[in-house]
Design goal:
Largest sheet: 5 strands, antiparallel
Distance between the termini: 31 Å
CATH superfamily of the largest domain: FAD/NAD(P)-binding domain
Number of helices: 11
Strand content: 15-25%
CATH architecture of the largest domain: 3-Layer(bba) Sandwich
Shape: globular
Order of helices and strands: EHHHEHEEEEHHEEEHEHEHHEEEEEH
Helix content: 25-40%
Oligomer: single chain
Structural class: alpha+beta
CATH class of the largest domain: Alpha Beta
Number of domains: 2
CATH topology of the largest domain: FAD/NAD(P)-binding domain
Length: 430
Amino acid sequence: GFLGGSTNVSGGALNAVDDKRQKAQGIEDSVQKFYESTMKGGHNVGNPELVKYLTDNAYPTVEWMEKEGVVFRDKIGAATGSLGQRSHYGKKPAGYAYTSAFENKLKEFGDHVVVLTETPASKLIMDKSGRVIGVSGLHAGKQPVTVMAPSVILATGGFGANVKFRQEVNTGVWKEVTLDNRIGTTNINKAAQGDGLKLAKSAHADIIGLSDIQLHPNGTPGTGLMQDIATSGRNRLFINKNGDRFVSESAARDTLCKAIFKQPDGTYWLLMNKLRYPDENKPDRMGVTMKDMLALGRVKKADTLDEMAKLINVPADHLKAAVAEYNKAASNKGTKDKFGFVATNTDDAPMTEGPWYACLKVPTVHHTMGGVRIDTLARALDKDGKPVPGLYAAGEVTGGIHGANRLGGNAIADVFTFGRQAGASAAQQK
């Protein structure tokens, strides 16, 4: 019913090696490091050619987005599980910083571009040779719509909200976890059913890596959404119900979630302090103020750690020891603590002053890494690795880019880098 899909409600982190912004913060990085961390984070099963294309072209994509109207913040951050400090954020809140800019861009084309919401595609139209030449669907549940075209791009998102399907294909990283209704999702329900995969299969495109499902550690109990508190970045601790830290907060997302499932009740408290929220009336990256979050009742506030321990029902001595342990690592940059946390990020700092804030969190289905097999031109490929004529794909509907685990901040980089390429490739079809 609206533009933007799951990108619209994402955290908006976009990973790219950006010499100008990173060097201004004293961050040392390279495209090779970006490539290596993406391969390693994906358990080295991602397609090296696709990963190289992503990491080589992420910053040119940032430059292109700026020309199209996106305004980025100067400060580079580190999304949860990013394995590096190269996450860009828009000045507008979250993913809306991008979707709003492109929606405005569409309006510049006037009647040359027709946007149809509430129009699920039901069929790819193919000629006798197997070329995709159009698509048909149903608008508002009653009006048939058919569009004939030299090329079709699938950009239909993943299947994280399709509980039945995600359980059927869950034979990979999370095979020991039942991904039923008790595990929520951060995705928009209608935008994450996997319908694009059915369309692709009907055109004989190869579907790969469906068992590669990502959970995010920062879901809200009961819904799986992440909108109640800004969860990404640094200077926030994972505290279990015993008041202890139990994992390196900078670890990859699958490592974080596996550690959470081993904790009492499979939940934990995300603990922050004044360092993250110096002004309760100032909107964070998600466009929400701490004052609003406190009013909703999801976030607990205390002036001291002793008070916080009572609010979240953990031993005060454990909680204070956990914070002290983190502060020691944050004060000794480059020194690994017992969980493997290393404070090399320029934003890492000891957490000492109140007020303190805590929010109960659980793992949630966040991203599905499997999907349509593509090449670096965003062409959909069949089982023999040959292009399906006239069919292109980009974004979460595709597979092979992120391997078995996606780095935080790589999805937005993916959707716009390969989306840009899909558009360029498709436009060449006559």
